[in-house]
Amino acid sequence: MKVCWSLCLWFALSIASASPLVAEEEEVDEPGEVAGAPAGWLSLLPSPRSVVPGDLRGFLAIESRVFFHEEQFAGQRQDSGIFSLLTQPEWYFDWNDGDDSILFTPFFRYDSVDPERTHFDIREFYYLHVGDDWEVRAGIGQVFWGVTESQHLIDIVNQWDSVEDLDREDKLGQPMVHGTLIRDLGNFEVLVMSGFRERTFPGARGRLRPPFVVDQDAAIFESDLDQAQVDVVGRWSHTLGDFDVALYHFYGTNRDPSFVPDLQGETIRLLPHYSVINQTAVEAQYTGPDLLLKLEAYGRDGEGSYRAAFVAGFEYTLVGLCDTAADLGLVSEFHFDSQDGRNLGVPYNPFERDLFVGFRLTKNDVQSSALLAGVIVDVDDGGRYWTVEASRRLWDSFKLEIDLRLFDDIPGEDFASSLLKDDFIQARLAWYF
Predict the structure, then answer these.
(1) Which end of the chain is less packed: N or C, by CB atoms within 10 Å?
(2) Which residues are within 8 A (CB) of 87 and not within 5 positions of it... i.e. 6 or more apart?
(3) Could you give the C-alpha distances from 338 to 61, 150, 305, 369, in angstroms and in order?
(4) Which fold has domain 2-15+60-432?
(5) Which residues of the chain have pLDDT under 70?
(6) Strands across the sheet containing 267-274
(7) Residues 67-85: pLDDT tens digits?
């Protein structure tokens, strides 16, 4: 059944445009520059980039999410369809021959069902100065670390904006000062952060939530400074032949909360608890002609006991699949976490001993058509999480994305069993300017 869903999504995206399956000899540009787009009313859309100094770009999107089952918990909205509008412009301005610059990236989403999912955030707003072999940025920023596909295990700087999606790729902006030194022995980074960002959670009417509502306004902090706690991380990264390696140490407030049950009258709510941790992590990737070997691992202290976790795997690419321009990547990764995911007293990681198997199909055509599909299987109890992500450019400046999430056979004692009736398909049509 899951394979059928993947093929249906790929077929829908393939027929959405009149382009051939094999890529032509054309240059592939960013959204907004697709060759052969209709020149009718679409060309009449105004571009803000023509009236704003500097470089203004971004997207405006309409999104629909449809759930396959009725709600599981009291208070959740009964209708299965959710409608959203979202936008994320990006303004960049530089001077001094590009050595000094400002980047501003706000984000806004309106959700038709869950007020907690309707939110505004400043993803980035910082000043950057670049020297000969160093750079420093100050303000609100985003930093991504990691190499694996199925879980971003060691990505610790920015808080997960969990009302956006389950894949942990949407992050809240974090106030910071970020300095980098570029040396022959590698790059050395120091980040000093304050103004901790609490994780977003669905409200009582929302889907993809635990049985009890998380009260974001009643968070508990181990640090007496609460959100003013100063977090510090130092990182070294280097390329050694075919290997890219990085090592960091983090001290500060954990981005992953545990949960404290709290009884208010006859209602149980969950209070997020953010502990102070020390975490040392490593990431490594080997890059061969057709093969990638990947590793992310950390050791963490500060949750009552020492915690260790890792994700390791490979991606093997079949280039020129069936004598076409398409590439097929075969991906497999194993997850391990020493903590018990059924214990609310520690931050929850659903992937304790799990195996991910999937593939990535890239057509390498003008429309940048791509499909990523896979399943994560719990090797202890057989629970499965299926995911499909498909995307394709449409017309001039438009992009269609379709995502599918399915949950199978998750035991009732597992925290993730609250998602068993939250299988959904999501479509997003975005206009890039």
Answers:
(1) N
(2) 58, 59, 60, 61, 107, 108
(3) 40, 18, 10, 38
(4) Porin (2.40.160)
(5) 1-51, 78-80, 341-344
(6) 220-221, 267-274, 258-264
(7) 999 999 988 876 668 899 9
